[in-house]
Amino acid sequence: MALWPVYTGGNEPHDGITRLPAPPPWRAFDGAPVLDSPDESDTATAASPDRVHRAETYRATPQIVQLVNAALYLRRPLLVTGPPGTGKSSLVYAVARELRLGPVLRWNITSRSTLHDGLYQYDPLSRLYAARGTAAEPDTAAGGTGIEDHLRLGPLGTALLPYGRPRALLIDEIDKSDLDLPNDLLNVLEEGQYEIPELVRSARRTPTAEVMVDGTDERVPVDRGRVRCRAFPFVVLTSNGEREFPPAFLRRCVTLRLRQPDDGHLAAIVRAHFDGEPDAYAQTLISRFLSRVGGGDLATDQLLNAIYLARSSDLDAESLDELAEQLMPYLGDAPLPDAF
User: 81 and 174 in contact (C-beta within 8 Å)?
Assistant: First the structure.
């Protein structure tokens, strides 16, 4: 029987993902052949120590736990909006670590990002040069079977492979994209599949191509240029709330709106990062941070930076206060403090 919640927010890795019920009939996928998931025992979820630390120290609220589970059960993307520094991108690492989903796939969005970038990259020029260099080998040069050697799946394309367990995918700062990208994502995220035209055209000669995936040199089989997922990935899209998204896009997502943490949540975050109760000065900084939040955007990591320096330096109280002001400027249009 399925147990709610699968994701608990407790930060202890477990196999709860296996307790997910069958997807809704309209969200069932049957991609094949089923691929082995990356090493589920690797709870690091990323090569960067910073990301490992964020996963281990993330503190989820009851609202976060509820909506993450809703996205997992419904096999829908989770659109996370909120001010800078509220833990939007850290969430996916925490979920991947707890549910043992393997390394997180990450797609950083810019104004030039296109759907094609997220699905795969193909370099026809490198293939042309390779063909010229192997002209003495007719089977390789003339047969046209080397397309897969010059093609690599992107983060989204890798996440949609038919893995037996869902992968975790972060599409970071979707509001930086041009106006077309959210609409372009609709069909791929709804259908859980896509085609690679270069491989479709060569399918008569090479029905199955071994293609490199995002983040590693591992190769996976792609049959006739078509990819269809089996376990829909846990997709987190982050937004700073700088733009509005089309209703059709929002309808296909579970939306989580994060707020600035209150004093209890901030104290829990500080305890997680510094492995102990906040001392008196840290409590003072927390109170100061909360009192200033109403005047503009502040990020939680600004507070953590100030507490770290207060714990690590031997500055006197007056110097610490002055330094804390410099470390916690508003991120919006409010004036920055004068330099000291």
Answer: no
Range of the structural domain that residue 44 is part of: 16-257
Instruction: Please check whether residue 7 lies inside any domain of the structure.
Output: no
Lowest-confidence region among 74-78, 120-124, 220-224? 120-124
Instruction: Please classify residue 77 by burial: count the beta carbons closer than 10 Å to its beta carbon, then call 0-12 exposed, 13-18 middle and 19+ buried.
Output: buried
- φ/ψ of 286, rounded to 5, equals -60, -45
| 23: CATH | 3.40.50.300
Residue range 153-185, pLDDT digits in tens: 999 999 999 999 999 999 999 999 998 999 999
pTM of the model: 0.87
Can you read off the two tokens belonging to residue 7?
């994701």
The answer to whether residue 332 is domain-embedded is no
Examine the domain organization and report whether 246 and 318 are in the same domain. no
293: Cβ–Cβ under 8 A, 6 or more apart, which residues?
260
What integer best gives the mean pLDDT of the chain?
86
